[in-house]
Specification:
globular; 6-stranded parallel β-sheet; 244 residues
Length: 244
């Protein structure tokens, strides 16, 4: 039996992990899916000052108060880029392995918003200003994003539209603060949006990918949608099970 902590990316709560969490529990594992502050059943707690530090504290407190050890810490997208390395940096003795779902750790001093292309950054900032009261990023047009995705269960889009919550924008603009402590832990990258060849090309040219240029990371390809917990949950569960 292994202990998993599952963290969602932007707009999503613990509910997004339900098929994966149920499958892992069926295999005998201890699973904790967490809604970060401002998402899922904790959407009502969102505030303009909800930032990356808030989300790091969410996870540190879960591990501390649930007395979790040897944790397989899984982060999708944003949670992989900045939350799980930060948690591992501050509580490495409780972490067994880091798993990045279609994501990778950003270097110290970079914020999540800085990772996207400038035009997307400008577009997001405008959405925050005009539709998010100046501090929230609205969920994306899910039906448009999923228009060519095969294998989605019939109720997936309805759940995404109904349950997604605006993302507190300060979580994207807070720079990550890391030492080198977290880098000593084993890590696995589950690549969905692009194959490993593309990652290797970006390693050579994009500074944000520098942590993936070391020998300390392994990868598995699960090519498909950026959100594999929806279109390929069984395959994702099998990879997580093997990672333990």
């Amino acid at each position: 039996m292994a202990t998993y902590v599952l963290l969602p990316g932007f707009w999503l709560g613990a509910w997004a992990w339900r098929p994966v969490a149920d499958d892992l529990r069926g295999r005998g594992h201890d699973v904790h899916a967490l809604s970060l502050t401002g998402t899922g059943e904790r959407a009502h707690l969102a505030r303009p000052d909800t930032d990356l530090e808030t989300h790091i504290t969410d996870v540190l407190n879960l591990i501390h108060y649930e007395d979790l050890h040897d944790v397989v810490l899984v982060g999708h997208s944003y949670a992989g880029a900045v939350v799980i390395p930060s948690v591992a940096d501050r509580m490495p003795e409780r972490i067994n392995r880091l798993v990045f779902i279609d994501s990778g750790p950003l270097p110290d001093g970079m914020s999540h918003s800085e990772f996207v292309p400038p035009e997307e950054r400008t577009r997001n900032a405008e959405l925050v200003r005009t539709e998010g009261d100046g501090w929230r990023l609205p969920p994306p047009p899910w039906r448009q994003l999923a228009s060519d995705v095969a294998g989605l269960p019939g109720d997936t889009l309805e759940r995404l539209v109904r349950l997604s919550a605006p993302q507190p924008w300060a979580t994207a603009t807070t720079p990550v603060r890391l030492t080198e402590t977290w880098e000593k832990l084993p890590r696995l990258h589950v690549l969905c949006s692009f194959p490993v060849e593309e990652v290797q090309k970006r390693i050579a040219t994009v500074p944000a990918f520098r942590h993936m240029a070391t020998e300390g990371w392994a990868y598995r390809e699960l090519l498909g949608w950026h959100w594999p917990m929806f279109d390929r949950p069984a395959e994702l569960t099998a990879i997580l099970h093997e990672a333990a």
